[in-house]
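Section 3.1: Structural characterization of target chains.
Under the original work plan, the team committed to producing a structural model for every single-chain target entering the pipeline before any wet-lab resources were allocated. The record below documents one such target. The sequence was received from the expression subgroup and is listed exactly as submitted; it comprises 104 residues.
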Amino acid sequence: MTENEIKLKAIAVLTGLRSGVDADYVSALLGEVTPSEFLVPAGAEPAEIGRALLDQLSGPWSALITGFVLAFEAVADAHDATEPETSTEEILQALALELASESD
């Protein structure tokens, strides 16, 4: 899967969530991004295996995060262009304060 296809999956996930699709569908989309098989060096030590896995996961996950960020920026720009009463930054700050006030 190409980096662009992964970014499109991120946008599809967000669109699906906002459209009320089943959580299994969203999970399936995210699952398509994660490799189902990994290559590890034969006879590798655990640390080396861990690095190999991380190397193979970091590209797809980075593209997925980039897709989420691109989608967010597009929605935030469209929201702020309407000159709303509450800006995107204020919404994010309120969310951060809410999360910070929740106990674990």
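The chain is about 75% helix and 0% strand.
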